[in-house]
Amino acid sequence: MLTKRIIPCLDVRDGRVVKGVNFVNIRDAGDPVENAIYYDEQGADELTYLDITASHEKRKIILDVVERTASDVFIPVTVGGGINKLDDIRDLLNAGADKVSINTSAVRDPEFISQASERFGSQCIVVAVDAKRLDGVCGEPPEWLKGSREVQYLYLGSEGPWEPVRWEVYTHGGRRAQGLDAVKWARFMEGLGAGEILLTSMDRDGTKNGYDIGLTRAVAEAVGIPVIASGGAGTLSHLYDALSEGMADAVLAASIFHFREFTIAQAREYLSGRGARMRI
Q1: Is the pTM of this model over 0.90?
Q2: For residue 274, what is the enclosing H or E element?
Q3: For residues 272 and 280, what is the distance between their CA atoms, to the nearest angstrom?
Q4: Residues annotated as catalytic (active site), given as ranges
Q5: Which end of the chain is more exposed for a tag (fewer CB within 10 A), N or C?
Q6: Whether residue 46 has pLDDT greater than 80
Q7: For residue 126, what pLDDT is reported?
Q8: CA angle, 222 as apex, 124 and 75 as ends, to 5°?
Q9: β-sheet bridge partners, residue 77
Q10: SS3 56
Q11: Model confidence at 162, in pLDDT bands (50, 70, 90)?
């Protein structure tokens, strides 16, 4: 059995760590490298940088932040945001990243995931799935899906009566609905070579009301690769719920760590005390 992981998430905008609620209402949370060093010293298992507006604004990836972090931080670092080409992945790995997180480009061209995993190895390819509970009409499917054999399987609008709870994939920092079934999309990405799924509930993001356990468990049961639960951590019990009831392999959190409500050490001790298998 794999040990469970605690992963602080640093959302980066304009070179600063920020945190919002439901992907909006952003506030400053400090310097990214200083935060990374703090979490490394605290005993975090991994660290994730997400440049939250890179895909939308088409800005350059934050290679300078990655390089500065790699010189002082010695835990695995995942970087996402604005990754559009294989060269972007190469540059990030060369700068010191251990893994890359891809969302928008995966939806735009799923074969990008196949190419990336073949060239760099599936162990460093994380597919980020930003999911929101469907309430009404779903978005239009991406162009490549229209008329393809996968449309009946992946497109939320192509099936008969909706199931009681379904989740839609969003891209471009949560700005664009894609009409894709989030659970089936995660399984599809696994088949194309993704090594992990970073699953964020847009409904719970920044609310501190707990992870979307239904979403997390549905994806975890659908795939055979690790699932990282994200969006909604407000207490240490929320972390445990995602790992136990949600069947997640790792929990990603921001607010509770950035604003020093809890430390990584406190989270590790709490989870271990409740029977979660943690790294020593």
Answers
A1: yes
A2: none
A3: 10
A4: 11, 130
A5: N
A6: yes
A7: 98
A8: 25
A9: 47
A10: helix
A11: low
